[in-house]
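Module 6 notes. Inverse folding takes a fixed backbone as the condition and produces residue identities as the prediction. Think of it as a translation problem where the source language is geometry and the target language is the twenty amino acids. Below is one complete input and output pair. Work through it position by position during the lab.
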């Protein structure tokens, strides 16, 4: 399929998304034309914005328009409240009237949270993280997405970790939707192979979980079925050849659908457990943590409430909605990630049996909102027993 046949379009959701090859220039110009900022903070990480070419495009347009801008390039994976507060202090000093976020979920989440805290007059992110203060306003924010994973360009969530308590959780507000988003598949071709896999696995579990929460609907399940099929069909292609633009296009499209699913129906226990894992060990990529614990947890849930997982019949057509089929689920989900060299073992992530108590504690302590959406109310003892099987 040629690049020309991969259509461009605009999704009109709670945020307008320009989707398609070479949409970044139009997106930046549209954002500047509409909001007419005079001072902009560009938020990114240390590598991806530059390597993808996105940052140079943005800087060139800002310079052409004579928009004063400052680049904050310190956001890292699994961002913390500390880094969010550093960005907040930078914004308080620079006093921007708009933000351009260029990166994956970590950059977009941090930018969404901080731009709202700044506009609300906050001087510290922590009270907003714990709900002691409420977001009341927002700055115009352009989200230039560089990965096909989190769906942060279309949702109202932002995830941070409190490095003091190791609580990793999402903040949520309707004010946290970006003002405009860009999903340009060309910007994802420089993703390293591992990140190609990890981000896509994140999108995959957005679909599995959102389609089975207590909030799930026919709408969510329809989008999730489409997205999961596209991920399974295209991820190995992108893994073999990162420059396969068609595979990147469909993975990015699937990720966007997964973000909409998450925005409508949330996630549940797989994300809750992973937040505990990477809260304890921030060096563990989010998608890798999901890949390790997802098969065991979803299989167990299937043994209890198989009727909540009809979406999996999209991938396993002869799957019966019966508890005894749960082992087929675990086998399928493990095989899906093992083809990329991922072992479904907490030991491989550096955790032993002595760490399980902390993982379980943080799961129930930091993510009760996700656990309440789980289709089966798992006890701490049940979770500990399942995780012990992964050590």
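Target side of the pair, the amino acids:
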């Amino acid at each position: 399929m040629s690049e020309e046949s991969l259509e461009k379009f605009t999704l009109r959701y709670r945020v307008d998304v320009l989707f398609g090859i070479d949409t970044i220039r139009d997106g930046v110009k549209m954002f500047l034309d509409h909001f007419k900022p005079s001072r902009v903070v560009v938020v990114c990480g240390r590598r991806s914005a530059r390597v993808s070419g996105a940052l140079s495009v943005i800087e060139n347009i800002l310079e052409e328009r004579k928009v004063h801008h400052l680049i904050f390039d310190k956001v890292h994976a699994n961002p913390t409240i500390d880094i969010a507060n550093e960005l907040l202090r930078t914004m308080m000093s620079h006093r921007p009237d708009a933000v351009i976020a260029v990166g994956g979920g970590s950059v977009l989440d941090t930018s969404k949270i901080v731009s709202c805290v700044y506009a609300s007059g906050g001087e510290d992110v922590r009270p907003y993280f714990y709900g002691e203060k409420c977001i009341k306003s927002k700055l115009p924010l352009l989200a230039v997405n560089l990965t096909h994973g989190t769906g942060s360009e279309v949702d109202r969530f932002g995830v941070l970790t409190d490095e003091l308590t190791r609580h990793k959780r999402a903040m949520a507000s309707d004010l946290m939707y970006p003002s405009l988003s860009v999903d340009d598949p060309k910007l994802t071709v420089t993703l390293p192979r591992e990140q190609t896999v990890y981000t896509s696995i994140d999108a995959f579990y957005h679909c599995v979980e959102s389609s089975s929460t207590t909030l799930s609907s026919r709408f969510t399940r329809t989008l999730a079925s489409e997205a999961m099929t596209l991920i399974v069909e295209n991820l190995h292609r992108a893994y073999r050849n990162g420059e396969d633009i068609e595979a990147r296009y469909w993975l990015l499209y699937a990720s966007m659908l997964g973000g909409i699913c998450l925005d409508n129906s949330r996630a549940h226990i797989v994300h809750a457990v992973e937040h505990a894992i990477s809260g304890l060990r921030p060096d563990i990529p989010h998608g890798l943590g999901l890949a390790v614990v997802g098969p065991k947890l979803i299989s167990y849930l299937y043994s209890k409430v198989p009727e909540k997982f009809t979406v999996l019949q999209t991938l396993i057509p002869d799957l019966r909605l019966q508890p005894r089929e749960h082992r087929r689920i675990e086998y399928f989900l493990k095989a899906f990630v093992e083809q990329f060299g991922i072992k479904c073992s907490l030991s491989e992530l550096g955790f032993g049996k002595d760490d399980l108590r902390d993982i379980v504690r943080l799961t129930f302590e930091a993510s009760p909102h996700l656990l309440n959406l789980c289709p089966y109310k798992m006890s701490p003892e049940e979770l500990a027993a399942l995780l012990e099987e992964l050590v």
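Reference fact for the lab report: The mean pLDDT is 97.
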